[in-house]
Structures are given as structure tokens and as C-alpha cells.
Amino acid sequence: MIKRIAVAVASVAIMLLANTPVAAAIPKDIDIFGESTQIYFPYSIQFNIGAGSDTDITDIRLHYQVERESFAGVTSEIDIDFTPAEEITVSWTMDMTRSGGLPPGTVIDYWWVIENENGSSLKTEAYQLQFNDGRYDWQSLNEGKMALYWYSGNETFINQIMQAAKEAITRVTEDTGAYLEKPVNLYIYASSSDMRGAMIFPQEWAGGVAYTTYSTMIIGINEGNIEWGKRAIAHELMHLVTHQMTANPYNTIPTWLNEGLSMYAEGEMEATFALYLEQAVLQDKLISVKSLSSPFSADSRISYQSYAQSLSLVEYLISSYGQDKMFELLNTFRQGSSYDNALLQVYGFDMGGLNDLWKEYIIQQYQPETAGVSSPVALGVIAVIALLLAGFITGKRLCRGCAG
User: Fold this and answer.
1) Which residues are bridge partners to 358 per DSSP?
2) What is the 3-state secondary structure (H, E, C) of the chain?
3) For residue 304, with 0-12 CB atoms within 10 Å meaning exposed, 13-18 middle and 19 or more buried, which class applies?
4) Cα–Cα distance list, 348 to 176, 197, 252, 336, 401 (Å)
5) Using CA atoms, how far apart are residues 184 and 234, in angstroms rounded to an integer?
6) In this predicted model, what pLDDT tens digit does every residue of 328-386 receive, in sequence order?
7) How far apart are CA 194 and CA 394, in angstroms?
8) Which pLDDT score is estimated for 70?
């Protein structure tokens, strides 16, 4: 009997030993021994990580999110190509020449996921970087929902810029009801040349750009062009406001409304644009509202006329129907309404109807018999301007190139 019990105990002991894990078989946790980024503004960002494990690391993935306005969260995943090993150091470069440029100040959240051949996995903490233009020593001024960044110019200069921005918003809010819903960033470069250095493949004429989905604008202004700068600030800032007021996942607003509101924010129509508008009326060469709903022509003369007509259309709607109707129109577009349906819902006419009403309105302002000697003078001035400006137009005018 004793012998049988001893055999049974021995059997149980063998079974217990067989099911006891061997300590050496437990996979070691994956360790991170280095994580960093290098920013090469405006061209690229390099992401780096080093990791080790007691077995080969077989998979590394970088996940990142660019903070911008979006109707659906977007996470990009990069599968890193490398040779499996117990210790690795890898890098991946976000090439802006392929993915598209980002404005200064853009925030990027990112993290890494690493696996080894035993199936162990490590997800790092979420890191964050800001895509700053490190070429300059930036200063900042914050008032309300506006953050102003600059590196050249005294306190008087930057206060003038801030005041111009606030006055533009106040005027537009009073006349259209549009307002800033979210904070915006304004980067003031000391020249158009400096500003173009912050862009990927910039146009030579670019003087300012609004990155609407980033609530950011960049512009080249200094003490020598402060008056131009005030109008340009108002123009680009209004693009940010208009986007905030009308953004939706279904439709955009017509170009004439977008650009017309930005021209309206600048104040009174400049003489150059007024001359182009007058000449189009006198020669019966007005562009239809339907055509102005699409991106404007690259031909500078047609583009000037398009901007002038857009401002006149906005002025007509505000002066004839009031602020409440314009605000209602913006809200209607925010619902994703089509161009014709939005106008019909708010004003009772479609684009064709608006075209007829506005033509009657604008022709009355430029009747040949009331123009006197100004029309022949205008002909001569426009001819000279056309020669001087052919192929050139300031960046604040070509906002069809405004980045999203």
C-alpha cells in the first residue's frame, strides 16, 4: 500500500513539472532606447526610433494624425521597411514635396507600434510635434481668437496689423453676420520672398496664402507696404472666416461669394478693379454669375474682372437685401445646399435670376451718358495697366490657390 502511494505521488510531481513554465521561455518586453524627430521646414519631417528585444523585431509601424479641420478622423499608417534584428534603429521621412506642404505651426500627433517574432507588441505613448519655421525667431501677440506671429518690425508695426485684422472682422460681422468661430493663426513674414520660402513650389506672385482647414494664414508684410498689408490681411482673414461659417462635407460655396466676401472685407473697391469692372460694363463683356462660381481664369485681366464682379455681387446682395439674408445664405451653404437651391431658399431667385438682377444694378451705375469723360480715360488707363500687370497678380488676389 505504501509503495502504491509513493508511485502516485511521483506521478503527480512529474505532471506538475511538465506543466511548470520555464523562466527562460518568457519573452522579454520590447524596449525603446531612442525616439526623435528632425524638422526640415518646409520640406520634410524625419521620424526616428530605436528599439531592442531578446528576439528579432519583425514589424514596426508609424501612425500619425495631422491636426486640421476634418469631418472624419484620419490616421495614416506607415509600414517601415527594415531587416529583422534584436536591436534596430529606423527612420521614415514625410516628404512634403509628395504629400503637400503644411503651414507653420501645424501640430502632428504620432506613435509607434512594434512587434517581435514571439508575438509581443508594444505601442508607444503618443508624441506630438509642431511643424515650425525655425528660420526665424518668432514673437507672438494674442487677442481674442487671433494669434499673430512675427519676427521683424516694432511694436507699433505689429499693433497696426492686429488692429487692421480686428477692424476687418468687425466690419464684416456688422455687414454679413459672419464671425470667427475658432481661433486663427496669422504668420507675418518680413517680405513676400521670406513668405515664399515657407511654401512648397510657390508661385512668384504669391503675397499671401490662407490655409483654411488649418485656420492659418501666411503673408509678407513690412513697414514699407503696410497699407497693402492691411488690405491683404483683411482679405485672407476673411477666407478663414468664410470657411468656418460654411464648411461642410457635401459642397463648397461659389467662388464669387468666397472671393467677393474677402474683397468686401478689404473695404472700398480699389481703382484698378473698378476700372476693369467699368470697362466690362461699357463693352457688354460681363462674366455670368454661373461662370464666376467656378475657379477664376489664370489670365490676369480676366481674373481682375472676376474679382471686381465678385465684390460687386456681394455689395449688391448686402445693400439690397441686408445683413440677415447674407448670414442666412452662409448658413444655408453650411447645410451642403447647391448653389441654385441656396439662392432660391434665401432670396427667391437662382443664379440666373441673380445674374439678371445684378446686371441691371451694375449697368445703371456705369451708363455711358453719366460716365462723362471718365470712360475714355478709363480706356487709356486700363490699357497701360494691362501691359504692366499682364501675367502678374498679387497673392492676395489668387486665393483659388489658397491651401485647404
Assistant:
1) none
2) CHHHHHHHHHHHHHHHHHCCCCHHHCCCCCEEEEEEEEEECCCEEEEEEEEEEEEEEEEEEEEEEECCCCCCCCCEEEECCCCCEEEEEEEEEEEHHHHCCCCCCEEEEEEEEEEECCCCEEECCCEEEEECCCCCCCEEEEECCEEEEECCCCHHHHHHHHHHHHHHHHHHHHHHCCCCCCCEEEEEECCHHHHHCCCCCCCCCCCEEEEHHHCEEEEECCHHHHHHHHHHHHHHHHHHHHHHHHCCCCCCCCHHHHHHHHHHHHCCCCHHHHHHHHHHHHCCCCCCHHHHCCCCCCCHHHHHHHHHHHHHHHHHHHHHHCHHHHHHHHHHHHCCCCHHHHHHHHHCCCHHHHHHHHHHHHHHHCCHHHHCCHHHHHHHHHHHHHHHHCCCCCCCCCHHHCCC
3) buried
4) 18, 47, 20, 18, 32
5) 13
6) 999 999 999 999 999 999 999 999 999 999 999 999 988 765 444 444 445 545 444 54
7) 15
8) 87
Against a cut of 0.70, is the pTM above it? yes
Report the amino acid identity of residue 295: P
> What are the C-alpha distances in Å from 397 to residues 90, 145, 281, 283?
44, 24, 21, 24
Query: Model confidence over 134-148: pLDDT tens digits?
Result: 999 999 999 999 999
In terms of Cβ atoms closer than 10 Å to its own Cβ (0-12, 13-18, 19+), residue 237 is buried
Residue 11: alpha-carbon gap to chain centroid? 74
Considering the chain, what percentage of its residues have pLDDT values greater than 70? Answer: 84
Q: Which string of b and e fits 334-350 if b means at least 16 CB within 10 Å?
A: beebebbebbbebbeeb
Q: What is the mean pLDDT of residues 167-193?
A: 94
